[in-house]
Amino acid sequence: MFTIDSSGSIGLINFVQVTSFVSKLAHALDLDDALENRGDGRGGFRVALVTFSTGVTIGFQLNTYQDKALLLKALEVRYMDGTTNTADAIRCAPSIINHTIRYDTRIFAQH
Description:
The protein is an alpha+beta fold. The protein has a three-stranded mixed sheet, with helices on both faces. The chain starts with a strand and ends with a helix. The chain has one domain: von Willebrand factor, type A domain (Rossmann fold, 3-Layer(aba) Sandwich). The protein is globular, with a radius of gyration of 15 Å. The protein has helices at 11-28, 68-74, 86-109, and strands at 2-5, 49-52, 56-60.
């Protein structure tokens, strides 16, 4: 899960550097192309995005992108400015993980 500070304390120049780094890192990842747990340990990475400043924005969940080009496009996020609300960004992490677990469990139970 990428959690990106988009507040005024980081500034636009640093925000651009951070988002560039995140995009390069995501480009190097082997994404999980299966929407379900195959049970064979062959899964790749899943990526979620949270940006925060005064508020928190969940860009996408862990099970949203299996296509790297679409993922990289989704990582092109806007700088928000505002205050630094790290606490709320951290608090939203369990909801992203729980959403993905519930989704995977439903898919796996159908088989």
